[in-house]
Amino acid sequence: MKFRKKKKQFIIPMNSMSDVAFLLLIFIMLVALINYRREVKIDYPEAADPPKVSVEENLEVWIDRTGNIYLDGAPGNLKDVENAVTELYLNAPDTRLHIIADRDAPFEHVHRVLEILQLLQYRVVSFVVKADA
Fold first, then answer.
1. Where do runs of H (alpha helix) occur along 63-121?
2. Domain range spanning residue 64?
3. DSSP β-bridge partners for residue 131
4. On the chain, which terminus has fewer CB atoms closer than 10 Å, C or N?
5. Under a CB-based contact definition with an 8 Å cutoff, are residues 55 and 107 in contact?
């Protein structure tokens, strides 16, 4: 007695494809939020012809109009700036440090940050300004 083998057809179930697409969309949206850059609301000083520098791979020191200091958008103080610059100098000495100060920030707060950079002899520094329109 001979048995016949049944040929099985491979069928892709399309019922759950919309669910998979929806879950992928949610996943992509969540991953996109991970690279969120925190910024402090300041009024930039202006310059006639500022040079362009890269935004990536740098340390940003923000100083708002009241003199509060932020490191890459996170609140900090002068000791945090000193520790971050020391670590930056040891790990990646060519990394640029951006000082982003509010136009109305008292210069004494900017000067304190510059004194730390001078003591640590860190020379890869940029002042971020708004281009003159």
1. 78-91, 107-119
2. 46-131
3. 47
4. N
5. no
Query: Six-digit token pair at 78?
Result: 């002068």
CATH (domain of 109)? 3.30.420.270
Residue 90 tokens, joined: 């040891």
CA distances in angstroms from 61 to 16, 54, 80, 91, listed in the order given = 49, 15, 10, 18
| The predicted structure's pLDDT at residue 19 | 86
Q: Please tell me the pTM assigned to this model.
A: 0.58
Q: Is residue 28 part of a domain?
A: no
CB 76 within 8 A of CB 38: no
| 108 conformational bin, left if phi > 0, alpha if psi -120 to 50, beta if neither | alpha
For residue 74 the two structure tokens come to 């996170």
79 within a domain of the structure (yes/no): yes
- pLDDT tens profile 26-59: 988 888 777 666 777 777 766 666 555 555 678 8
